[in-house]
Design brief:
The structure is a homodimer. By secondary structure, chain A is α/β, with parallel strands linked by helices. The first copy, chain A, is built from 14 helices and 9 strands. In chain A, the strands form 2 sheets. In chain A, strands 6-5-4-1-7-8-9 form a 7-stranded mixed sheet, with helices on both faces. A two-stranded antiparallel ribbon of chain A has the order 2-3. Chains A and B meet through helix 7, helix 9, strand 5, strand 6 and helix 11 of A and helix 7, helix 9, strand 5, strand 6 and helix 11 of B.
Chain lengths: 328, 328
């Protein structure tokens, strides 16, 4: 009897070992150099016997959102503002006579393609401020789960990149705190981040308006003033403000050069904890080069790829490094 | 043989049960109503069979810092700015001729007691901006661990309230995410929060200047502009910004009426998660009424105690509810 039990335990233990060795944490990634770099980095820094071991409290990873975790051609928050202008125009007739709202209502493509920064600011303030945070997030969730993404013809929530979901889960299994740090609005992302990515609201950093607390109504109101446009150099600044620790992993994408400062900071920035100065870090830059399965686009000045070469960051070719792009 | 083992297991299990029942999570609290309310609240909302059960991800607690977790007569950050003015004056001779620096250098008590808001702003900008965050936090930690607190004649780091450390630990054991939300500067608190309270930098919300990232030097600089003075109605606004979830526990103190909006919000505010609307919540207000062991002070308009009565918050009498105030 005793021998039988021991034999069963032995067989079970073999099974467990072989199972954990053979299970691939990143099945939607091809077995190319980037995937190998990611896995060997994680195995190294989580190994207590390695000189590069990083204690759990300093395992911080930051991801951009648009173009890094889901599609950005066009940017989904821009689609939301168009959707919202159409809804608002049902009761607010004045919108039809003022730009850029008029162009949106008439689908004036020529105007829309040449919108300037002033138009965008007007659009954001009109469609995304003035309400309270709870109401705003409800509208966003309804939109994201109820609308089709143009060009790809799939629901918006399906434009999430499956390889990145696997990477987030792999990092979380290895005791990383995973944050999003994106140019998108903070409540826009919080409305869906738990459901889409398994990332909770308190781990979201984004652009934000001025909030105020209305005591009589017990509501926090999104005011008509953008306090931070969380892009470029503003990203490291907001990481410092929200987290107060330098991330050891930063993931962004080419597009508008918006993520390179965040990657630079994770690699070169100073760290609060003097002992953690020499942590090994990992930078990943997604290159949109897959016109068949997603989109192919580049920056005019190529700044993101140039910095990636200069600083030796990992560049993900969506075409070659990702076996699958969207979840099925 | 088998029976012996079973007996041992039985005895061990009895021991475990009696041990966990008898251990007091809050030994520095007297057995008064407030302590009973806290413990029965926690036992209720962590009990999966209770109708008031709160899932772990929604267990958020926020604490004020000055006067709630450590002494505030005088405010420790003000002492730091005096200390810093004295240090800066060694190389910057111009300070001796401009107010309020002149008054600090000459210990002009009459001037110092009547400093206005402009003086305080000048003081903060001069002594606490312009450096990078890493350098600033080092200076703060040196100060807090190397300076004596006036009136009490103990090291500054010893002015932490022992009952509150026990409360923080008790909440963490019950899977709460514990945040500080204080009018103090965010880096000032982050410099010592892990060591003093066991609260990590990413869980600190405070007042903050404008940060900027200097790419050439890879440093985040604290700019000469205060973006948020995290007091009164600004506290719920910043909780929303940093956490994106409404806390179910809020702890503050009487003094300047700075915490009542945060307590009000935790009790009455809307919650992002529609299912969590009806969570039971807990509000605690510390009353400084112990002139023997700490200080006795009150607000001119009594607003904090009035709100506590109106909204049925728990009021802690430091004199009656705390067995011990400072750690030994």
């Amino acid at each position: 009897m005793k021998k039988t039990i021991l034999l069963i335990i032995f067989i079970l233990s073999l099974f467990t070992i072989s199972y954990s060795k053979s299970s691939d944490p990143l099945p939607s990634w091809n077995d190319t150099a980037v995937k190998k770099n990611i896995i060997s980095y994680i195995e190294n820094i989580t190994n207590t016997k390695s000189p590069d071991y990083i204690p759990e409290q300093d395992r911080i990873a930051v991801f951009d959102n648009d173009g890094t975790l889901w599609a950005e051609e066009p940017i989904i928050q821009l689609l939301f503002s168009f959707y919202k202008v159409n809804k608002m125009a049902e009761t607010d007739k004045s919108l039809a006579s003022a730009q850029p709202f008029k162009a949106i209502l008439n689908n004036d493509k020529k105007y829309l393609e040449n919108m300037d920064k002033n138009d965008l600011v007007k659009l954001v303030l009109k469609t995304q401020t003035g309400t309270d945070t709870v109401e705003f997030e409800k509208e966003v969730a309804d939109f994201i789960y109820g609308t089709t993404y143009p060009k790809l013809n799939i629901p918006i929530y399906k434009t999430v990149y499956q390889p990145q979901i696997e990477l987030i889960n792999y990092l979380k299994e290895n005791k990383f705190k995973v944050y999003i740090c994106s140019g998108g609005d903070i409540n826009f992302m919080r409305a869906v981040s738990q459901k889409l990515y398994g990332i909770s609201p308190e781990n979201i950093i984004g652009s934000y308006p001025k909030y105020s607390y209305n005591t009589d109504e017990s509501r926090v109101i999104r005011g008509a003033e953008v306090v931070s446009n969380n892009d470029k150099e503003e990203k490291p600044a907001n990481i410092e403000l929200f987290i107060g620790k330098k991330p050891v992993i930063a993931v962004g994408n080419i597009g508008g050069g918006g993520d390179i400062y965040m990657l630079h900071y994770s690699q070169n920035g100073q760290n609060m904890n003097p002992e953690s100065k020499n942590y090994k870090t990992l930078q990943i830059l997604i290159n949109h080069d897959d016109e068949k399965r997603e989109f192919k686009y580049a920056e005019k000045d190529n700044i993101s790829l140039n910095w990636a070469q200069k600083y030796k960051w990992n560049v993900v070719s969506m075409k070659n490094d990702w076996k699958q792009i969207f979840s099925k």
